[in-house]
Design goal:
The complex is a heterodimer.
Chain A lengths: L4 H20 L2 H27 L7 H16 L4 H31 L4 H31 L17 H21 L4 H21 L1 H4 L15 H5 L2 H10 L1 H5 L4 H43 L2 H11 L1 H6 L4 H27 L9 H15 L4 H29 L8 H8 L4 H16 L13
Helix pairs in contact in A: 1-2, 1-17, 2-12, 2-15, 2-16, 2-17, 3-6, 3-7, 3-15, 4-5, 6-15, 10-12, 16-17, 16-19, 17-19
Chain B lengths: L1 H38 L6 H22 L9 H30 L3 H23 L12 E3 L1 H8 L7 E2 H23 L1 H11 L1 H6 L4 H26 L4 H17 L5 H19 L3 H7 L18 H15 L11
Antiparallel strand pairs in B: 1-2
Helix pairs in contact in B: 1-6, 1-9, 1-10, 1-11, 1-12, 2-3, 2-4, 2-9, 2-10, 3-4, 3-9, 6-7, 6-9, 10-11, 10-13, 11-13
The chains are: A mainly alpha, B mainly alpha.
């Protein structure tokens, strides 16, 4: 108990901060911050597995998040029958060609010795394959995108409940991580960082521009929810009763019957959105707790010890007979899969998929700030980082506004500098993040909750 | 005649824009490579440092414009550049003193320095956005075109026009002058040689009496010059927007790595490799084939290898391929 005092203290402070937001701003805001904190925590756990356990830099978090989001679309949206009949066959054919290409390249790689001829052969297969795919797919894609472009214009998904997509998102992201890992994991740390960053940009470019699959920048809106809709709740008997019970004291003060009804309606509307957010919080909390248990178990298992050994001294671990390359690939896939889950959760919560919103600042570098600030190698630290940094990210604007008003209190309201500063309030969050990161890196390089390994 | 038309078409849409874009990338890539070679980390704040320098130049340009100073046909920004460079160098030395120096003295691993540069990136981005805002700023004045497409057509009687913007010529010219000066400095002067020695083997360089503080300072000064000029040229040619500058960091990194990181000449060529391949692969060749091929063989489609949406993806794919087959870059890296 005493050993974990700093962990408990840090988390209680975080909880109190969120509750304070609930009291002073509104419970709606507090809960949406809390939900995003949970999602961020999942992302940081993924990044922490890669960086904290194994020392692998992955600056491609954005790409895996977007793939998770794509999974949410492909699982939950109902299939668009017309689009399938317009171009489904072409797409399936292209898919078959890709599989054939991969198999034939693997075959060549296995059965022929390395030579110039082999390299040219592979290049020829790839180039001719791409041309054939373009020829087969083009008419199909045009057909699909022509189907009611204002509303669909894409193939749609499977029409399953969206919660499944959290698992599928993990598989998508893991699959991409497998490819990226095969390609890039041999690189030195800073090259790996740049390579993963650029690969994630390629992923986003594909998601943005392959309209037949993702609707691209036209966005997919109105995804199904795992939680009830506010509108339905507001007309449900038991929910109105529940709200009435909760606020019976407040309502009893209002003597006028019609006034009381109006007040109750207002409360029901507020309560419904809080209730929906609570449903999400519950779902996300389950994911976070499951992942936390799994990652903690892994950290203290023989496997976790091996990963730390590899991280701290690759050559020694290699000499002890550990397969460093394989373990790196494995951990790269696992971490990315967790990020994929978070990506799917994010889209689930928002109910919409907007490929244009995936920016490296928000989805890669911010997550890294969270990991570094929280404490790499420590799962509790990583989660705390997710909470603290997201909280600051959201509350930075009000804080900055307060500070600006404090310092410019002597200036008249129309002073150009004051107006300019108040207009640029949203950008102070970057300043806070940057300064926070620099301070932590300088004075507490292991993060708020540093890695703590007990040798049992 | 048709053949000439085809060549003018390619010149107009591929070579001239790619040369200008490549020069802008090349300056940024040399900046990255210098920092990597001498200070030994990947500077993720590259794009934002460039936008900082450009922002200062823009503010000076506006000031000069309000005073009524101008260069006639040339953009006013050219007078602003020296002032912007001074500010930029002060800013960089300030950051180095308060941020990077600590880790250098501690001999932290390059990864940690890269992380720190992310912190610098956040701060710089915030400063730029707070001062000048996130939106597009145009600060070009003076004469826009050297040759207009219509005039060219009238002059030569060809169907295709060749339009050359003054900013394109300016970019290419300034880049050539700047890069030649830089190579002269690195190869012929004593300081330049000691920089190369320091990059090659730090301990040996220290033993032979090279002052590391001086080397680091000169590196930041050169970096400041490159970043500001590169940024201003890009802003003149296109427009200034903080987010675009941040994004430009990616092709700049690609150029530096393709050319072999740590090798300035490689970075210089890498910029052009990236720019040309981006534009070559995403240009629609339909019109070109219409001129070159007989009428019966005219292509129906756009004959575009990749849609322009994948412009960035092209350079990144090149990077990935280079990393796979020649991790040290096309030209051997890590020698300054």
């Amino acid at each position: 108990m005493r050993k974990n005092l700093n962990v408990i203290a840090a988390y209680s402070i975080m909880l109190v901060l969120i509750i304070l937001v609930g009291i002073f701003q509104s419970w709606n805001i507090a809960l949406s911050i809390f939900n995003m904190c949970l999602i961020s925590a999942v992302m940081t756990m993924g990044a922490n597995i890669q960086w904290g356990y194994a020392g692998l830099i992955n600056f491609g978090i954005m790409g895996y998040t977007a793939l998770g989001g794509l999974a949410a679309v492909l699982i939950s949206v109902d299939p668009v029958q017309e689009a399938w009949s317009a171009g489904g066959i072409n797409i399936l054919m292209s898919l078959l060609i890709i599989i054939a290409m991969v198999i034939s390249i693997r075959f060549i790689l296995k059965n022929f010795v390395k030579s110039k001829l082999r390299t040219y052969g592979i290049a020829a297969i790839i180039i001719s394959g791409i041309i054939i795919i373009r020829l087969t797919a083009e008419s199909g894609i045009e057909g699909i995108e022509a189907v009611n472009p204002a509303k669909t214009g894409f193939l749609g998904g499977l029409g399953l409940p969206i919660v499944f997509s959290w698992i599928v998102g993990a598989f998508f992201a893991g699959g991409l991580a497998f490819i990226v890992g095969k390609v890039a994991l041999g690189l030195r740390a800073d090259y790996l960082a740049i390579a993963t960053l650029l690969i994630s940009e390629i992923v986003i470019a594909i998601i943005k521009h392959e309209d037949w699959l993702t609707r691209g920048v036209k966005n997919v809106i109105g995804l199904k929810r795992p939680a009830p809709y506010e509108v339905d709740l507001q007309t449900t008997e038991w929910f109105i009763n529940l709200v009435e019970k909760f606020n019976s004291g407040k309502l009893a003060l209002i003597s006028n019957l019609s006034d009381r009804q109006v007040a109750l309606n207002q409360l029901v509307i507020e309560g419904s959105s809080v209730f929906v957010k609570l449903c999400y919080s519950g779902l996300f909390l389950v994911v976070v707790i499951i992942l936390l248990i799994l990652t903690q178990k892994a950290l203290y298992s023989p496997w976790g010890r091996m990963m730390r050994a590899i991280r701290d001294n690759e050559e020694a671990a290699n000499a002890m007979g550990k397969n460093v390359v394989k373990q790196h690939l494995l951990i790269f896939i696992l971490g990315s899969a967790i990020v994929g889950i978070a990506g799917a959760m994010l889209v689930t919560q928002d109910g919409l998929f907007t490929p244009g919103s995936y920016r490296p600042m928000r989805y890669t570098f911010l997550i890294w700030v969270m990991v570094i600030v929280g404490g790499s190698g420590n799962n509790f630290g990583a989660i705390l980082g997710g909470f603290a940094v997201w909280f600051l990210w959201i509350e930075a604007a009000p804080i900055a506004l307060f500070v600006i008003n404090l310092f410019t209190a002597g200036m008249p309201e129309t002073h150009a500098l004051k107006i300019h500063l108040i207009e640029s309030v949203p950008y102070f969050r970057y300043l806070m993040m940057g300064i926070g990161l620099l301070l932590i890196m300088r004075y507490r390089p292991k993060g708020i909750l540093p890695e703590k390994i007990e040798i049992k | 005649m048709d053949f000439l038309n085809a060549i003018i078409l390619l010149l107009n849409y591929i070579f001239v824009p790619a040369l200008a874009y490549g020069s802008q990338l090349a300056l940024g890539a040399i900046f990255v490579t210098l920092i990597y070679g001498i200070l030994r980390f990947a500077n993720f704040a590259t794009g934002d440092m460039m936008s900082f320098g450009t922002m200062v130049a823009i503010l000076f340009t506006w000031y000069f414009q309000s005073l009524g100073i101008s260069l006639g046909v040339l953009p006013t920004a050219l007078i602003a550049i020296p002032f912007a460079i001074i500010f930029m160098i002060i800013y960089m030395l300030f950051i180095d003193k308060f941020v990077f120096k600590y880790y250098r003295v501690q001999k932290s691993p390059p990864v940690q320095l890269a992380m720190v540069s992310i912190g610098v990136m956040f701060v710089t981005q915030a400063v730029v956005r707070i001062i000048i805002g996130p939106s597009d700023q145009r600060f070009f004045d003076g004469q826009k075109f050297i040759i207009k497409a219509r005039e060219f057509k009238e002059m030569t009687g060809l169907n295709e026009g060749l339009a050359i913007k003054s900013t394109q010529v300016l970019t290419i010219f300034v880049t050539i002058v700047l890069v030649s000066l830089l190579f002269w400095f690195l190869n012929k002067t004593k300081t330049g040689k000691s920089m190369k020695a320091y990059s090659d083997n730090e301990d040996l360089a220290l033993l032979s009496g090279i002052d590391p503080k001086k080397i680091v300072m000169i590196t930041w000064i050169i970096a400041g010059i490159l970043a500001t000029i590169g940024g201003v040229l890009y802003g003149l040619d296109k427009s200034f927007k903080p987010f675009t500058y941040f994004n430009n960091m990616l092709p700049i990194f690609a150029a530096a790595i393709v050319g072999g990181i740590g090798n300035p000449f490689g970075a210089f060529l890498g910029g052009y490799v990236i720019a040309f391949s981006e534009i070559f692969l995403t240009y629609a060749y339909k019109k070109f084939f219409m001129y070159v091929l007989p009428e019966s063989m005219e292509p129906e489609s756009l004959v575009q290898l990749l849609s322009t949406d994948y412009k960035f993806a092209v350079s990144f794919s090149i990077l990935v391929i280079v990393l796979l087959y020649r991790p040290s870059g096309i030209f051997k890296g890590k020698v300054l």
